[in-house]
Each structure stands twice: as C-alpha cells, then as structure tokens.
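Figure 2 data, in text form.
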Amino acid sequence: MVIFELPATRDGANLRAVSLGSCRVRNPLFVLRDRGDLRIRAEGPTPTHTAAEALQSLAVALGEQSIPEALNPYVFESDHRPSVDRLARALREGVDVFLLEISDDKQFSYGDIRLNQNFVSRNLVQAHRGILLDWYREICRGAPAQEATVETALRKLRDGGSRHDDGLAELLRGIKLERNAGPEIARTLAALTAKMGGRWVVVGPFAIPGDDGDIMQRRRAFNEALNEAAGACGALFYDPSQLLFAHGKATALAGGGVDIYEYAESFYPTLGETLVGLVRRVGPPRTPTPSPEAATAERPRSVRRAWAIGLEAAWAKAAKRVRRLVRKLRRGVAKLAR
C-alpha cells in the first residue's frame, strides 16, 4: 500500500490517492516520486494480488484485523508485522482516489487469513529446498492436501533436520488455494468501495497481443470479469494490455519482451504516468480559484448589502463633519464683518 499526493493543477488542490497492488504499481509510483512528480505520504511493505488481500490489507492498516504471528512470513514476508501507524493516520485524514490492481484470481488462505502466493512459495516451499513440492502441487489443484501427503512432508522435514512441529503440520493441513470467480470478486470489490468510499480505479493484468496461450486467455477472461465487477461498483476499469499495443512488448516488458509477469524498468515512467493520469481522471472535480473581482461579485447578497451599508454610513459621518466645519467658518466670517 502506498499513499501519495499529486501536486495541485491550475484548477484545483492536491489530490490524495492510495495504491493497492503489486510491485507493478508500486515501482512506477516510486520512479515518479524520485522525479518529483508526486509525494509519498506513507507506505506499507505488503503487496497484494487479489481483491480479498487488498481488503485485508486495509483492515490491518486501520487496526480492524490482526494477523497471527505464525502467518506473518506469508502475509508481510517478514517475521514481524510492520508498523502501520502512519498508514492509519493518512487513511483517516481522507483519500480522494483508490488505485487498486487486481492481478490474479488465485487466493491462498489459512482459515480467514489471506496469504500472499509469492510469500507462500518463497518462505515455505522454496525455504525447504523441494521437500514440500509434492504438498504444494497438491494444494495448487484446488483441494486441501491429503493427510498422507502431509505426513510424508513432515517425515522428510524431520529427516532433513528441518522444522516439523505441530504448528507447521497444522499449516500444511490448513492452507488452501481457491480461484475467485467473477461474482466473488464483485462482492469483495463492493465491500472495498463501501468500506472506504472515495473514487476507485481497478487495474487488471496485462495480456500480450498475439499470444493466445492458456495464460493470456485466462487473463483476458479475468479482465472481462473485472470490468463487469468494477462497473457494478461505479469504478473505472483499466486494462494495461493497451500499453503493450501502443508501445510493443519488447519495450514494455522485462527481458526484452519475454517476461510475461513484469514490466521493464525503463518502462516504469510511462506506466507511472498512465496510472497518475487515471487517478486524475476519476478524481473529484475541483472548483477553480476565483479572481479577486469574481470573488467580490460572487459574495452573498447579505454580505454585499452589509458592505454597502457600512460605506454609506462612513460617507454620512464624513459629510456631517464637513457641514459642521462650514458652519464654524461662516460664524467666524460674520464676527469679522461686524
């Protein structure tokens, strides 16, 4: 989560926005920060990929939800919950626009806690050097791991001198992976917009033009579902695939266009400018600052009337003093004449 401010334009004040999403949103905003195009007010280290993770991230930042310590590495990546005091203060001060990237429909969870799929892979599966691969493949099919699979994994962990306690056993039994369909995403997005108010931009994953493989076909179908869900909530949907149409995948994507998950660092400024443009596009309308003449003309009638009455009183008082002075002069001239 990143809370940032865009500088005022000629027709309005600063615009405050919150981004929720992965490094594909975060990194371009930081490039614009380094360029001086925006100001970062507060940030949290937790990236999100799904609407449910974004909702949980906001609840944690506002102190409405806590994460069990044992799950910290799979939610925050670190072993400790990050401080969110600055995030909470900035959120409560008010936000104009929420920029929400929803890049995936796959959701890892443990009970009612949403887990980051990258951190589950990195801090659980990869950390044990392949011992949990069979377990991981099984849950990735969409069902809880079989007890035999869990027991085999625990035995391999024990034989390899790795952690194999009851806590880890419960984790292996409890983690599951589900795909959120369009209606579920729509309900979560509705909960987000109702919770925080403001105006929303929803950014989907990019699909590479001309690539009709399974991954890209799923992304295109996912973007259609996101577009429908965003429309139902009054949010603007943006499909970043159009950036690849405009600039070409060799320019936009890492690895000279072969990376199907990351943008090229050299493309961050273009992406950041696009995101900022979307924020400004949906931002609340700003009332132009009136000129002094217009401000006077637009004063309430009662204010203008009071001002006129005051001016008339001042002139009347001055005229009275002039008349008094004239009378004194006349009396003085009359005495001299005698």
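Caption note: The beta strands are 2-6, 15-20, 39-43, 97-101, 106-110, 113-115, 175-179, 199-203, 236-238.
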